[in-house]
Amino acid sequence: MLRQIEGSRAVAETVALCRPEVVCAYPISPQTHIIEALGELVKTGELTPCEFINVESEFAAMSVAIGASAAGARAFTATASQGLLFMMEAVYNASGLGFPIVMTLANRAVGAPINIWNDHSDAMAARDAGWVQLFAETVQEAADLHIQAFRLAEEVSVPVMVCMDGFILTHATERVDLPTQEQVDAFLPPYVPRQVLDPADPYSIGSMVGPEAFEEVRYLAHARQLTALGRIGELGAEFAEAFGRDSGGLVHPYRSADADVVVVAMGSVLGTIKDVIDTQRAAGHRIGALGITSFRPFPIDAVRNALKGARRVVVVEKAISVGFGGVLSTDVAMTLSGLPVPVATVVAGLGGRTITKTSLGDVFEAALGDQLAPLTFLDLNRGLVERELERMALHRRSGPTAENMLRDLGVTGSRIG
Amino acid sequence: MFEVRFHGRGGQGAVTAADLLALAAFEEGRYAQSFPSFGSERMGAPVVAYCRLGEREIRTREPVVAPDCLIVIDPTLVHQVDLFAGLGPDGYVLVNSTRTLHELGLGSLADRFRPERLLTVPATEVAQRQIGRPLPNAALLGSFAALTAQVTIEAVSSAIRERFNRNPSVAERNVAAAAELFQQARQLMTANGRAVLGAPPD
């Protein structure tokens, strides 16, 4: 049914249609509305049977999800930012043990400095944790990806993280087609665990594994992700057939077939990018985009095929590998290995910095004119940076950088007294 | 596409107002997108919320930088924040205040924008009387409907009822407030802007 609905609410109602048996989470912005809504659905009996477990931390949230999954329950949780980092040990355990937990990550910057706004630093910090990571472009896709996530996770015995941009998607209302219970039931069969803690058939889960088999266990984790890679595309196609919407899949090309410049990105910024591309196409420029939905597993062949005809690739990403540059760009560049297609990185939107059509347009025009630097920080306030560098050069005791810069901007009363 | 920027303070319902407007437009078959710009999440801090209305899918995620309409829920913001940034010469301005624009020190707006598109309405007072609480957000949408004709008052009422469906009494009181402010806006507009602008200072 078509609804005008907040992103968090759409995800919560869709997760409820997936019939999770255990939902556990600890509140953290911008994820909180999802869990609040699910708690409400459990309390009113609309989502039943389901146990909603209040936990004391994110570490406990993931630990409870692991326990629930080991007991054979379909388990769901959600988090963001420091919450993900706080649960990280258990995040690795969930994938290492092969439990098909689904988690929404309402993407948010990672401190310090503390910042509640959107970027992809949290997801990138979990890049190698062994989870499937899917990125939603719209609220509709965020909702739809959860249905596919449960199916994929349980088929392949891999946990799945559905990444949606914090605030930009979680707190936005837009037109969303929410499926019916019958549609979801037809797509998502009941969970049949591959391993389960059963007193009638007791065994242990979580043995210590030494050098004799650790590499093999890890290899199998990699192999499961490669299986997932194949299934993500198939499930996307099956989903489109059943629900009539092209949500999911590995990648989404946009006007890229004949493009000189292809812009690669993940998440909600693709919408803004597409608007800019339409404007530049209308002005006669051959430019297109490639949205990457599946970041892990990374669709090497699909990305290479989509980009191999381009003259230049621009990766717009909301994260930075400090001391190196882009994260997504590294993977994109790998897929183009051996091809004469240079990849430029544009770091944008960190900590919720607005990504404007104007700034994107300037960057894309520079790329079309072969003027774009290999690494660009979009709309970087150089003056602000220079002032802090000067302070640091002048005084050994220059004080905390973040507070100094905020004082320069006049946005806080950080000096006490 | 028609873009609206709401300016209020934490606790006044700017975000809810943007969501309600999106819902009203959706109910009339249009595409709509609403989203907040969160600053400090505390009562009293300036809050900005956005709403876009269109005939096709709205893809952009950038904040509304060139609004077609400004809705100022808290008139104490008018001299604190750069409220009118990006508003074009044909833009609409709706201010929640018992005062005229001249009394608010905004008389010069009439030189920059079309006077018939500027409106002040006493939404807080109407809300206090109709709802029993000084919550002007939903009621202001009644005046927005009259001022811009982007949504009908029926769609606004319907959106309010849907949003507050768990508390029909609150919903009806908000609907009544919106209806009163719709009528007030109509009357002020037929007064050819003079009632809104007020007398220039001596």
Structural overview:
The complex is a heterodimer of chains A (417) and B (202). Chain A has three domains: 2-243, Thiamin diphosphate (ThDP)-binding fold, Pyr/PP domains (Rossmann fold), CATH 3.40.50; 251-377, 3-Layer(aba) Sandwich (Rossmann fold), CATH 3.40.50; 384-417, no CATH class. By secondary structure, chain A is an alpha/beta fold. Chain A has 15 helices and 15 strands. In chain A, the strands form three sheets. Chain A has a seven-stranded mixed β-sheet with strand order 3-2-4-5-7-6-12, with helices on both faces. In chain A, strands 9-11-10-13-14-15 form a six-stranded mixed β-sheet, with helices on both faces. With 202 residues, chain B is an alpha/beta fold. Chain B has one domain (2-195): Pyruvate-ferredoxin oxidoreductase, PFOR, domain III (Pyruvate-ferredoxin Oxidoreductase, domain 3), CATH 3.40.920.10. Chain B has seven helices and six strands. Chain B has helices spanning 14-27, 109-112, 123-130, 137-148, 153-163, 168-190, 194-197; strands at residues 2-9, 31-37, 46-54, 69-72, 92-96, 118-121. In chain B, strands 2-3-1-4-5-6 form a six-stranded mixed β-sheet. Chain B is globular, with a radius of gyration of 16 Å. The mean pLDDT of chain B is 91. The chains are: A alpha/beta (417), B alpha/beta (202). Chains A and B meet through β8 and α10 of A and α1 and β2 of B.
